[in-house]
Amino acid sequence: MVSTRSGCIVIDRGLDWLGRPYPRRPEGIFITHAHIDHLDGLRRGAPCPVYATAPTWCAMARWPLADRGVLTLHEPVSVAGLRIEAWPVEHSRNAPAVGYRMTCGETAVFYAPDIAKLPRSRRALDGVSLYVGDGATVTRPLVRRRGRVLIGHATIAAQLGWCVVAGVPRAVFTHCGSGIVRQDPPAVEQTIRALAQSVGCTARLAYDGMTLNI
């Protein structure tokens, strides 16, 4: 959930949220891609407009969603005081994914919870204050190639590399994989903090209920 003085939005609503109340009524829900852990919480409808790209809408075609916003890549929309731009990322060929670049005033955040590659990463992250990325794996790649497209999950180390090149000072990693959640959380957190410090930025793992002021 991203909140401003004008309201809030939610990014993704996975199956584990099906039937659960919203902590706060959002002005919009933005879906990154058509995997069940990102959109199946909307099977019974939504209390507000839902935004997604055309390929993702194919997976939700029959769902009871009355207010549908079809996003075009790199064409921003304004919701709840945020300027929100869908940015293509490589993650799945069957469920094309996007990240979201969100701007409020002079502050920009980039959100990409499932990602194997960020094309034109320097441009995507230019001027970004916070990168929220894929916490599937720290240093062991979970990526395979199909043709010219990468599928899977980039390492946290690789994503920190994108941040450093673009000058992003701060990163948080969410949607963590089993290789992280089954380990000792303080030890993993220490590893990630040290990895980020070694390349000149700061990073940490997200946790349930975490709040950040940007």
Q: Please, how many domains?
A: 2
Average residue-wise pLDDT: 95
The neighbouring-strand order within the major sheet is 6-7-8-9-10-13-14
How would you sum up the global shape? globular
* Biggest beta sheet attributes: 7 strands, mixed
Strands, count: 14
Précis, in short:
With 214 residues, the chain is an alpha/beta fold. Helices cover 21% and strands 31% of the residues.
Can you describe this structure?
The protein has 214 residues and is α/β, with parallel strands linked by helices. The chain has two domains: 103 residues, Metallo-beta-lactamase, Chain A, CATH 3.60.15.10; 109 residues, 4-Layer Sandwich (Metallo-beta-lactamase, Chain A). 21% of the residues lie in helices and 31% in strands. The chain has six helices and 14 strands. It has a seven-stranded mixed beta sheet. A five-stranded mixed beta sheet has the order 1-2-3-4-5. The chain has a two-stranded antiparallel ribbon with strand order 11-12. The radius of gyration is 17 Å and the shape is globular. 39% of the residues are buried. The model has no long low-confidence stretch (mean pLDDT 95).
